[in-house]
Amino acid sequence: MNIGQAAEASGVSAKMIRYYESIGLIPKTVRTEAGYRVYSDSDVHTLRFIRRARDLGFSVEQISDLVSLWRDRERASKDVKRIALEHVTVLERKIVELQQMAETLNHLAKTCHGDARPGCPIIEELASNEAPQCHSAAGTRFGSLGKAPTRV
Amino acid sequence: MNIGQAAEASGVSAKMIRYYESIGLIPKTVRTEAGYRVYSDSDVHTLRFIRRARDLGFSVEQISDLVSLWRDRERASKDVKRIALEHVTVLERKIVELQQMAETLNHLAKTCHGDARPGCPIIEELASNEAPQCHSAAGTRFGSLGKAPTRV
DNA sequence: AGTGACCCCTCCAACCATGGGAAGGTCAAG
DNA sequence: CTTGACCTTCCCATGGTTGGAGGGGTCACT
């Protein structure tokens, strides 16, 4: 199977398959004489695994661990569960962050008459010198969420 | 005021101030003879505005619009409200996405005994050939959320 | 006047995951 | 043999932010 068919069958783009190979998430494949990558059904299976893990929001690094655990017949389900639950924790923190942003904006938008007149509480809030937001946590730019603030 | 003090006072790092200048979000500042950027209290006010908008998850492009509207005394609050509510829509879609991921994982983790034995429903789910997830929408990799799937 | 501790400058690279495209090789069908 | 669909590698862009290198400025203290 060529890379295009493998991409089709797995739902991972050819671009990403090459990228995953380049970073070592998947091993280098066999090549034809002409240099074309060749994939087996088993490879497609792995790619599908990877795609599902991506769909669940795991990072490539986490997926790398999950793939290892998957391949490892002696794997401890404890390890898998730990990775999954750690990820859930991160997800839930991000959810809260986004909810606070949305709440703050909804609150401000509600008090904004939204017509052609100037004078808008949203702008005024942003421009104020006072406490950043009414919903406190949205201002914690560098929460303990990792290296960077949540990009939205 | 030098850039460091402006950064301190506004909560925007010196690096980011230079970046915002370079992309035109803020105008070029006056410089000292030695080439140091000089900031006024008003500049700091603008930077604080920008930081708050970032905290609310607005993109730089949106912030650029908001800053223009802020400066424009004839601004229509309608325009501000529209930007804010559009952003809320995006936020809420992302929240739902993340919630679905978290739900799926929580569900799988619940059925994972999580001890030293092998055999783990989380891995098995990822590896299965069947329907991607029990919570359907988490698999819609390219939902109508914009250019790319939500990176987590 | 020298020295050390900071500050500032610009430019370049990295992160993450992904898409786009150019320039060239390969393959199968017509 | 031509055409078109595929493959290859390589480079570039995204967005927002941080980091570093390498060079210079400023200031207070000795």
TrEMBL record, chains A, B:
Single biological process term from Gene Ontology: positive regulation of DNA-templated transcription
Molecular function GO terms recorded: copper ion binding; DNA binding; DNA-binding transcription factor activity
Pfam families with a match to the protein in the record: MerR, MerR-DNA-bind
Location (main, coarse): cytoplasm
Location of the protein in the cell: Cytoplasm
This protein's GO CC annotations: cytoplasm
Keyword field contains Transport: no
Keywords: Cytoplasm, DNA-binding, Transcription, Transcription regulation
Residues in HTH merR-type domain copies: 1-69
Statement: the UniProt record of this protein carries the keyword DNA-binding: yes
NCBIfam families: CueR (TIGR02044)
Protein name: Cu(I)-responsive transcriptional regulator
